[in-house]
Amino acid sequence: MTTTTRPFAVVTGASSGIGYELAKCCAQEGFDLLIAADLPEIEDAAHTLRGMGVDVQALKVDLASTEGVDRLVSAAGERPVDYLLANAGHGLGDAFLDQDFDAVRHVVDTNITGTIYLIQKIGRDMRNRNEGRILITGSIAGFMPGSFQAVYNGTKAFIDSFSFALRDELKDTDITVTCLMPGPTDTEFFERAEMEDTSVGAGKKDDPGMVARVGFKAMMNGDGDVVAGWKNKIQTTLANITPSSILAAQHRKMAEPGSAE
């Protein structure tokens, strides 16, 4: 990668959706990029982003494995990472007992294991330099028990909690940690999770560009967390005072297969 004085950002899950839009926000600010995803479309994303006048390196890699994360870190070379946007994640619909466990484990390993391993690898270098910004894509799903999406919601509950804890651990440094918590967003998420016949999958969703801009601005401001969309803000506020049994029943109406009207 060409050495320049431009800031350098690593963005995961950047082949489409929120991740691509986050990478676009970085490019618009003049950041060089290392983008990664587990789909070949990451090369198309890189081609488009290069047209914005920044250096872009693309890597097709499965970030559910520590080996995949090591490949990503190695691709950054010796260049210090100024911004880490840890966005890679997968969903999985249907009842837990009916899910294939390999698919379950891949969601857990992508959303949790690979994410926190990447953050630790790059975060340690940031701590050594005492500078850097980390944006972690959590979800409002982490605020509620996810009937028919139990594993995904559980992973996002972990990520939401983890981001706040890491931020506190780094409060005496010049490193910031921001958690972006979107609601349902118009991406390939629901198709890949096989949730297109659900109420939430078929319903109206937020624009990924809007979500990314909200998260990027929060990261640049050094904010601890941000919920994208006023309806989602109301939902998270209510979730904090609603019994878990009621939240689970409400989620069933959104995510149960065949619930789409």
Automatic annotation (TrEMBL):
Transmembrane annotation, as ranges: none
Pfam family, one: adh_short
Keywords: Oxidoreductase
PROSITE patterns registered for this protein in UniProt: ADH_SHORT
InterPro entries: NAD(P)-bd_dom_sf, Sc_DH/Rdtase_CS, SDR_fam
Family membership: Belongs to the short-chain dehydrogenases/reductases (SDR) family.
Name assigned to this protein: SDR family NAD(P)-dependent oxidoreductase
Organism: Terrihabitans rhizophilus
Lineage: Bacteria, Pseudomonadati, Pseudomonadota, Alphaproteobacteria, Hyphomicrobiales
